[in-house]
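Notes from the 1:1 (GR / supervisor)

We went over the backlog. Supervisor wanted to see one worked example end to end before approving the batch request, so GR pasted a single chain during the call. The sequence is below; no edits were made to it. Supervisor asked that the structure be written out right there so they could see what the output format looks like.
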Amino acid sequence: MENSENTSAQEEPVTGVETTMDQTEKLEPLEESLETTLVDNLEEHSDEHLESLSEAAIEQITPEGEVNYETFSRPELVDMLEKAVAETDFNAIKTKIALIKVAYLKKKKEESLKKYETVAEEGGSKEDLAPEPDAIDIRFNDLFSIYKTNKAKHLEEQEKIKQENLKKKFLILDELKTLINSEETLKKTYDEFKTLQERWKEVGMVPRTEINNLWQNYHFLVEKFFEKVKLNKELKDLDLRKNLEAKMSLCEKTEELLLETSVIKSFKKLQKFHEEWKEIGPVPADKKDEIWERFKTATDKINDRRREHYSLIEGDQLKNLETKTALCEQAEETLNLPNETIKSWQENTNKINDLLKIWKTIGPVPQQVNAEIWDRFKSSLDSFFSIKKEYFDKLKEQQLHNYNLKVELCMQAEALKSSSDWKKTTNELIRLQGEWKKIGPVPKKHSDKIWKRFRAACDDFFNAKQAYFTNIQANEGDNLNKKLELMNRLKEYQFGEDKSANLEVLKNFQREWTEIGHVPMKDKDKLQNEFRTLVNEHLDKLKISEVELSTINFQAKFDHLKNDPNARRTISKEREFLFNKISKMKEEITLWENNIGFFAKSKSAALVKEEFENKINKAKSELKVLEAKMKILKQQGA
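Structure output shown during the call:
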């Protein structure tokens, strides 16, 4: 049905319309549904191509008085998107949603660039720089999915409506054909014609592929109507003058657009004026070409200005491409520079950061190369920060090892800080300080703290040493009195019958004697000899064996090492020495005992045998002493 109707409308050649009807179809073709196309493109834009999207395109779809969405944060934009999606008037929200999306993606990209700067200063990696969807992104994507679903439903419904409108317009064309062939009076025919015109205007949109065909057929029939009914000259002239005034008004409005500073706004208004021009009927024949040339001249100037505007934009984008290409080359050169010190890394990091800051100030490049140039620049940044991270990871590992070494030195110094063995401890601390200097740097956050700890331990000892030697005479005099008092206590002490207890008492006296500090040099040897004589006298009275006697001083010696930081090492060495000596002595005793059996019974042999027996007995006594000492060392926990 629809196809047959369409065919009948085309029975008379459309090519002849141009000679009889207004020259509207001669207008320079304009982008049909430009705003809709831009909105659809913005909805499908990805964030990686957002940089190439011109501000002009965004301005072109932005209604006058619309808010600037780029002033809002991402959460605020998501809230706006949620409200917009909930609205039922799809045409009212379509442009708003597209602008919200552009603003949201720009905000997200700005945050990504800020993250680049922060991670760059901290030596971040490519993985650190990789964007991760947050709760706001998820919410935004969910809402946009709802909108796209609603949009698909809306478009489906609109398509049905357009098909219905197409049927309505085909019916109007059929009615126009019938009216043209009607024999009714002029008044009645003209009224019906005006009614059909109003109905034609009231019908909504039709499928885009049918617009031109419908428009040509409609105007063809309108011209046929005027020819058929031969409308009286006065009525026709009145209508033609009315149409001329309307078109003159459009010419004036179009010419005023030449004063509009915004190319985008002037072009948007020009589109509306062209739609209005198409709806206005014919004008007097003698004015037709004149009014058309006036309108076309203003249109051409606006189109020329628009083409020049976009040509400048394209030129700027090419310049931006050259600048960004140069930044890529500088980034690649910086990437290849040697970095062997922290200072060189910092200098080159500053260079990379400066390049990134400059990049952010440069406008968009042609869309077809936008992703490529950004990937090139970003690749250099990612590689630089990845290598930097690897370097500083190794550096941190070495610094941590150095830190552990310095903690060990601190512990050794702290173990020595209370020592009163001034000479030995001084040498040991000087040795530790030398080791400290050889160790490399530690993590910056620990550097000051660990140094203060080590220095405090050293200062404690050297301050105590200085205080001691400042008051050395008073200290030595006190120590002399303490040792004399100890000798008096030893002289007066009443020993019991328990030999072990007596031996322990003597050990305690000797330990106490050792723990008392230095005495004046002139009294040292005399006092030591008197104390040793007193101890030996008690040993003789108490009948303490040679083994016990030999081990008393040995026990005292190692008791004195308790506070020495090298005690474990000293005891370990002594234990190894005794073990080897005991083993060797046992071997010698066994050998000598075996050799005695070979001596013959003679006077000379008896003398040699007696000498060997004395040697064996002496060795066995020494062996007992060595084994007693070994037992003492085991008790020390070595």
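Supervisor's comment: The chain is about 80% helix and 0% strand.
Batch request approved.
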